[in-house]
Structure formats: structure tokens, C-alpha cells
Amino acid sequence: MWRALADPTRRALLDLLAGAPRNTGDICEHFSDPTRGGLGRTGVMKHLDVLTDAGLVLVRREGRVRWNYLNPVPIQQVCDRWVSRHVRHIASSLAQLKEVAESGE
């Protein structure tokens, strides 16, 4: 998952899918714009494959159309396991700082 998230194009792809599921043709059209990476279909498919292998994108096929969905579960699991532990400590420290500042000590 970390390797998949390390690439800015893949993060942009996940951001696009966060808005709504997209078929592969729509994604290719979006990223074919030079201001959005100028990727061809092969490049988009490689990025989608990495995201799918990491479990961050789920695929559903309807005939010849491939629908791509964001799967937020792995990201939430990382957040729960790693990030929230550190955020809890920081939030607790900030609350203590607020108490000290407001008490005038």
C-alpha cells in the first residue's frame, strides 16, 4: 500500500475516485490532459493495477466496461493503526496546554 500511495499520479487517481466511481475510459480521458499528467491508456492501466493490487481500488466489470471504485478500508486501517495513535498524543498535549494557558499559570 505504501508503494501505491507514494506516487503522486496514483494519489490523484484515488482523489478522482473519491468523488465517484469511474469507468476506465473516463479515467483515461481525465489523465490524457497534459495538465493532469498526459498519460495514455497503458499508463493509466498500470497505475490502476498497482492500486488494485494494493487493495485501494476495487473493480467491477459490466460487459466490456470496467468500473473502478475507491476502497477506503486499507487507508482507514493505516490511520487507525498508526496515525491515530500519534494524533491522540498530540491532541492530549494540546488540551493540557490549553488548560495551562487558560488558568494563567
Concise synopsis of the structure shown:
This protein is of the alpha+beta class. It has helices at residues 2-6, 8-19, 24-32, 41-53, 73-103; strands at 22-23, 57-62, 65-70. The chain folds into two domains: 2-71, Winged helix-like DNA-binding domain superfamily/Winged helix DNA-binding domain (Arc Repressor Mutant, subunit A, Orthogonal Bundle), CATH 1.10.10; 72-105.
CATH class of the largest domain: Mainly Alpha
How many domains in all? Answer: 2
Structural class of the secondary elements? Answer: alpha+beta
Q: Give the overall pLDDT as a whole number.
A: 88
CATH superfamily of the largest domain: Winged helix-like DNA-binding domain superfamily/Winged helix DNA-binding domain
Tell me the fraction of residues in β-strands, as a range.
Answer: 5-15%
Give, in order, the helices and strands.
Answer: HHEHHEEH
Low-pLDDT residue spans: none
- Fold-level CATH name of the largest domain: Arc Repressor Mutant, subunit A
State the shape.
elongated
Named at the architecture level, the CATH assignment of the largest domain is Orthogonal Bundle
Amount of helix: 55-70%
Rg, rounded, reads 19 Å
Oligomeric state of the chains in view = single chain
Largest sheet: 3 strands, antiparallel
- First-last Cα distance: 46 Å
Total strands: the figure is 3
